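retry 2 of 3: previous attempt timed out while embedding flavin mononucleotide. Reduced batch size to 1 and resubmitted. Inputs unchanged:
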Amino acid sequence: MTIRPQDLGDPSFRSDLGLEYNYLAGAMANGIASVELVAAMARTGMLGFFGAAGLSLSRVEDAIQRLKSEVPNKPFGFNLIHSPNEPRHEMAIAELFLREEIRLVEASAYLDLTLPLILYRLHGIYRDAKGNVVTPNRVIGKVSRIEVATKFFSPAPERFVNELVQLGKLTPEQGKLAALVPVAQDVTAEADSGGHTDNRPAITLVPTIIALRDRLQAQYNYSQPLRVGAAGGISTPASVAAAFIMGAAYVVSGSINQSCVESGSCPTVRKMLAESGQADVAMAPAADMFEMGVKVQVLKRGTMFPMRAQKLYETYREYASIELIPAPEKAQLEKTIFRSSLEEIWEQTKEFFIKRDPEQVTRAEKDPKHKMALVFRWYLGQSSRWANSGEPTRVVDYQIWCGPAMGAFNEWVKGSFLEKPENRKAGIVALNLLHGATQLMQFRISSLLGLAKQGNSSPLPVEFEKLKEQLGYAGVPA
Ligand SMILES: Cc1cc2nc3c(=O)[nH]c(=O)nc-3n(C[C@H](O)[C@H](O)[C@H](O)COP(=O)(O)O)c2cc1C
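retry 2 succeeded.
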């Protein structure tokens, strides 16, 4: 018996999405999941999601055109991210995807569903000649919580469907069909990961979401059965094998792809990631939901970002306005973190928001605490930009989203050609993980059956030429 990488996971997922392997590279904000990364995944017979979060409409539009010309007729997707602070932007992105006929999105950061998401999902829904309900647009929901998974696996809420019918975006007939399909046929259970995370262990989250899927499939009896994927910690043959053995239809990686050559990050960041261990990560305040105390998982080795961001959060909590921060404390922030006066930072912040969202400025001028939040969020926003662009004077402030998956991967590839970040091509990394997972599964099954000796062998990464031979692989990972 031979287990092959192309057999791992749910076969209906592969055929529905046009993939050779049930392996996905999750979106990474600000184009870190770049056109090059998404194209590399597509060429390898896998799926990547462009990191649209944090980018302007025109940057996203540009990425769409580039992907359409670089990998025509191959599957790729985009991130549709919940933007509670910018609902108009979320709608504009959804409408852009509709105009450009982007057929697949990874929907993330949703705690509740929104009108743009439902519009995207239901746009063009129809009943075909055989009586099947067809939805041209596919949503893969990414969640860390059972309540949110329930919403994705259920039909769209009636209030949104009615609103879309009233707005003329759906016909009344389409509105009725909405009750027959889930918002997302596929939901990724996101365990402890880089970026936004609830830090749940995959071995507890994945089975829970799978059990939920079974209950909701029985309840709604959808003609196309629901599926669950696994994300968070996917970075070694063992984690990939474990996810598939737990019943994941597909796996999604994230942190490891940022350290690959195609990522939209910079060489310094790739090197920092490649040198990190599993414990070199920390939770730090998030730029987008700073005031609410939401956190993201970031690299802590080689950067002071987590400490400095935490200091800003504590200062924000303690004082009602910038003016009430004691002078020595304010001077310290200006010297170490901002390298400028807070008044100067406010001027820059104001200029930014006047173009992007002028209501923020009006609010800040009335509410000094909001003004302080916007000024502090300047640092949280810039620190990601400095990391992506490789700003040499701000290495200690780099905000690098990263989960323990990165350290586990580094440990696995130690001593192999994948140790150096310049050799890490996302397609080759992914093929090695799948290949290693099949070897590991085979070994474990054989030893359980008493056909091989027990041991701790972990398959080592294999160079592409050799891998090609072993897999009989015809793809072209670029
Ligand atoms: C640098 C970075 C940026 C990310 N940005 C996003 C994002 O914008 N949208 C999103 O849905 N997920 C984002 N993620 C999460 C990944 O898509 C993926 O789900 C996650 O990283 C998987 O867990 P892992 O980091 O343990 O591999 C990001 C992850 C990283 C490491």
